[in-house]
Specification:
Radius of gyration: 15 Å
Number of strands: 11
Strand order of the largest sheet: 2-1-3-4-11-10-9-6-7
Helix content: 25-40%
Largest sheet: 9 strands, mixed
Shape: globular
Strand content: 15-25%
Structural class: alpha/beta
């Protein structure tokens, strides 16, 4: 059985991209970093992975900047192009943190630009709904590393929320598409987690790419 080639798209080899690539490699995939549009060819890969990073430009969801940080229009443009190519090819897409947020915006959703520091660099529990494609892999709850100050406000078209934070904010922590193989997580499954929940997610995604 061939090893799935996963296209990891970012404008440079950021620490987030490097961490995600390392996790993909350790869990059975071959990550390939792509930094330019001309090298994004869905036919050459088995799946797409969008790493964490700076915030999505709020202009993309028709809002002024009210707390977004480290915005990069070049990164937004590159990754939105990648999403469009893999959506057209109906190939699996994995979004992590910023990746989830960008996918939500791509499908017409919006974001809370600043929810404070309560979800910054913390191992936090999420509740997993039975509708989640990962319900039988993770069970009803999982604890993973969160590192975000933004979250989904209005869900994008065709997306369903499948995990929520268990604190009073009840943030949407994972989404999937109704008909396309798109799965995204507000937290960081590529980093350490209790009971290897993050490793299970990455391995599960790679299986979807076979």
């Amino acid at each position: 059985m061939s090893v799935p080639r996963i296209c990891v798209v970012d404008t440079r080899r950021s620490s987030d991209a490097a961490s995600l690539m390392s996790s993909i490699r350790k869990n059975g995939g071959t990550p390939v970093l792509v930094t330019t549009k001309k090298k994004i060819r869905a036919a050459s890969y088995d799946g797409l992975a969008l790493p964490g990073g700076g915030d999505v430009n709020p202009a993309l969801y028709h809002e002024k900047n009210r707390g977004s940080r480290n915005v990069s229009s070049a990164r937004d443009s590159l990754q939105l192009y990648a999403i469009s190519q893999f959506v057209r090819a109906r190939k699996p897409i994995l979004g992590v943190c910023r990746g989830l947020q960008l996918l939500n915006v791509y499908f017409g959703g919006t974001l809370y630009q600043n929810i404070g520091r309560s979800h910054r660099m913390k191992q936090m529990k999420v509740s997993v709904t039975p509708a989640s494609a990962l319900y039988h892999t993770l069970g009803p709850t999982a604890t993973l590393l969160h590192a975000h100050h933004q979250s989904i406000k209005r869900l994008g078209n065709g997306l369903i929320a499948t995990q929520y934070s268990t604190d009073k904010k009840r943030c949407i922590e994972a989404i999937q598409h109704e008909t396309l193989p798109i799965y995204a997580f507000q937290y960081h499954p590529e980093h350490g987690s209790r009971k290897n929940a993050g490793k299970k997610i990455i391995r599960w995604f790679i299986v979807q790419c076979r």
